[in-house]
Design the sequence.
């Protein structure tokens, strides 16, 4: 028996062959691709690819290193961040990394700081930009990058609200028109073990699928105490994770990975969601306005249920992964274990290349072949899947896919300046309105 032919949100049927092909392509190693054709001409009339980094935090620094290791003739030539100290630390860290000697050329005149730093960077002759700021800025930066004709790596998630998702979908459609790359930071789709496991599920390894559980239980993370000279905007930007307008809440910022895996397995997106959540531990003002737990039930139009559970609290049992039940067996799909149990048990045990590196390898290989990758549809829709869950937990209402996609709730601040910041309002189910 095959995995169920679920309906995509909007009524369009899943194309099983497309799913299988996508799974295979995402896991194909760069080494299997032929790069024998003549190289394209890039910056300064050469075959060198110039890279710009927008967002110089820890993840941005990691992405910068991976991009520079993905291709022999690539150079980081421009950097941008809201904060000068983050940019300086990132450049210092990258300069000390093995294998990056000769791949860094970022003089002070190409180090841009402030809310408009991204525009200054995009005005340079970079070919590829890495978008690794807090998620709120992704739609704005992606639109500007595609308009400027740049190839893009976009870290997950790609928006914090529905207007942002709609903007990303438009930008990715424009990227296709311009033959530009948009590679997503939903890195599990670039892990060969995940690709093989999902392929087997698509081929019916456990029969028709009926129930999935996506868990993301983890401990507390960093918080940066407010300093006397910080404005409200400084404080919120430094602690971006704790403010819904910047991160989308942690079930969007973090859990989007396994929600995306479940959507990948099922070949589409649900029709409605209902859930609950709140703040049991994060009660201090230092934790902004995000929740510390969410529990959401997503329903597909063929009756399949996806149960999403997230918690971020100290001294509790941790667990992250997707658990799949089918008519003829079960599967565990996680970074710690890839296993399918039916008449017999299969495990993926091969050693594979780091998925964070693979996504950059594939990005640059596609550019070299003039066959740019575009992950735009699933990265936007999986982001909306997470936002849909937050809408359900914040309001206490049932939320349909169409309501989520059409939502007019725009979390953007009135202006991007180092002064006032959006009001810190904690959502209250049954009181907070569904917009």
Sequence:
């Amino acid at each position: 028996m095959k995995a169920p032919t679920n309906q995509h949100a909007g009524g369009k049927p899943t194309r099983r062959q497309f799913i299988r092909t996508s799974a295979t392509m995402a896991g194909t190693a760069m080494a299997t691709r032929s790069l024998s054709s003549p190289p394209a001409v890039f910056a300064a009339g050469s075959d060198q690819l110039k890279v710009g980094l927008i967002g110089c935090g820890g993840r941005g620094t990691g992405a910068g290193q991976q991009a520079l290791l993905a291709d022999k003739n690539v150079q980081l030539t421009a950097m941008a961040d809201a904060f000068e100290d983050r940019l300086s630390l990132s450049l210092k860290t990258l300069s000390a990394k093995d294998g990056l000697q000769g791949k860094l050329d970022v003089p002070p005149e190409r180090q841009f700081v402030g809310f408009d730093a991204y525009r200054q960077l995009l005005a340079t002759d970079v070919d590829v930009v890495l978008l690794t700021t807090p998620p709120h800025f992704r739609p704005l930066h992606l639109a500007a990058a595609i308009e400027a004709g740049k190839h893009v790596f976009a870290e997950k998630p790609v928006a914090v609200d529905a207007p942002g998702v709609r903007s990303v979908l438009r930008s990715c459609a424009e990227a296709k028109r311009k033959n530009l790359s948009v590679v997503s930071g939903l890195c599990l789709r670039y892990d060969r073990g995940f690709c093989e496991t999902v392929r087997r599920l698509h081929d019916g390894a456990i029969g028709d699928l009926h129930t999935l559980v996506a868990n993301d239980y983890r401990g507390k993370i960093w918080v940066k105490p407010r300093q006397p000279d910080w404005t409200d905007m400084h404080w919120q930007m430094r602690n971006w994770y704790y403010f819904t307008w910047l991160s989308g809440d942690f079930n969007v910022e973090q859990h989007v990975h396994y929600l995306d895996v479940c959507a990948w397995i099922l070949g589409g997106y649900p029709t409605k969601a209902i859930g609950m959540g709140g703040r049991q531990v994060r009660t201090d003002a230092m934790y902004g306005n995000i929740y510390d737990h969410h529990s959401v039930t997503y329903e597909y139009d063929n009756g399949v249920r996806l149960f999403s559970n997230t918690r971020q609290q100290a001294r509790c049992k941790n667990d992250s992964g997707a658990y799949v039940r089918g008519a003829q067996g079960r599967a565990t799909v996680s970074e710690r274990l890839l296993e399918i149990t039916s008449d017999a048990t299969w495990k993926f045990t091969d050693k594979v290349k780091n998925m964070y590196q693979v996504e950059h390898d594939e990005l640059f290989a596609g550019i070299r072949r003039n066959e740019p990758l575009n992950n735009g549809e699933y990265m936007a829709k999986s982001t909306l899947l997470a936002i849909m869950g937050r809408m359900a937990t914040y309001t206490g209402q049932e939320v349909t896919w169409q309501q989520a996609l059409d939502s007019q709730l725009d979390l953007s601040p009135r202006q991007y300046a180092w002064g006032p910041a959006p009001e810190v309002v904690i959502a209250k189910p049954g009181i907070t309105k569904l917009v």
